[in-house]
Amino acid sequence: MTSLPFSPAFAVAFVLALVRASAWVVICPPFANKSIPAMAKIGISLGIAVEAAVTLQHETLPATDSQILAQVLVQASVGFVLGFVVSLFVTAIVAAGSLIDLFSGLNLPQALDPLSLQQTPIIGQFYNLVATALLFTTGSVLVIVDGFLRSFKAVGTTLPHVTMGTVAGVITGDVTTFFAAAVEIAAPVIVVLFATQILLALLAKSAPQINVFVFGMPLQILVALVAVGLALVALPGDVTNLVGRAMTQIFGA
Fold first, then answer.
1. Contacts of 73 (CB under 8 A, 6+ apart)
2. Which of 64, 76, 93, 132 is the most exposed place for a label (fewest CB within 10 A)?
3. Comparing C-alpha atoms, which of 131, 104, 128 is closest to residue 190?
C-alpha cells in the first residue's frame, strides 16, 4: 500500500497534478461526456492527482508564488493538449458514423446526443454510444488513464524537450490521422452504399418506367442498416487500435 507523505513538496505536487488532471478530464473521452455528474469528474481528478503527486513530488517544483502560478498555467495547458489528442482519436469513430449518415441519407433528421448534448446524425450518435461502451468493455479506458499517469513521468514540471513547434506538429499530425481514421472505419459501409447508388442509377437508366425514387431511399437505408450491423464487428478492434495509436502519439512525439 502506497503511503502519502504530507509534506510541502507533496502539497505543491498535488495542486499541480490536480490542475493537469482537471483540464484533462474536461476534454478527454469518456470522462468529458456532459452526462457524467460534475462531482464524479471531480472525484476522478482527485484520484488521479493523488496518484500522480507521488511521482511529481520528486521533480523540480516551483518555490515562489510567481513560479507556482506559471506552473499552474503550464499544467493546465498540458492537460488540455493530452486530452485533445485522445479526443481526436476516439471521436474519429463518431466522424465515421457521420460519414455513413451522409452517404445513406440519414443525415437529414438529426437527433440530440444524450452524451455530448449536441445535434448529431443518427448513425454518428449510435457510433458515439457504441464507442463509449467499448472504451469500458475493452479496458481501453484503463489504458487511457495509465497513459495519462505516465505523462507525469514523461512530461513533468520542467518540460525539458517540449516546444511549441513540437506541440503544433503533434496536433497537426493528429488532425490528419483523425480524418484518415474516420474514412478508414466508414469505408466498407460507404463502398456498399456507393455500389447501391450505382445499381439504382443503372436500373433507372435501363428501365425508365420504374420510379426508382419510390423504393430507392428505403432500399438505401435498409442496406445502410445491414452494412452498419456487419461493420460493428470491427469496432472493438478499431477502438483498441485508436487508443493505442493515441498513446503512441503522445509518448512518441
1. none
2. 64
3. 104
Return contacts of 44-51, CB within 8 angstroms, 24+ apart.
45/18, 45/21, 46/18, 46/21, 48/17, 48/21, 48/24, 48/145, 48/148, 48/149, 49/14, 49/17, 49/18, 49/20, 49/21, 50/4, 50/14, 50/17, 51/149
Parts of the chain with a pLDDT under 50 = 1, 253
How many CB atoms neighbour CB 113 within 10 A? 20
Contact 78, 72 (CB under 8 A): no
Helical H segments across the chain, by residue range: 8-27, 38-56, 65-90, 92-104, 122-137, 140-154, 164-206, 212-231, 235-252
**Relative orientation angle of helices 140-154 and 65-90, to the nearest 10 degrees:** 150
pLDDT per residue as tens digits for the range 96-135: 888 888 887 766 555 565 655 666 678 888 888 888 889 8
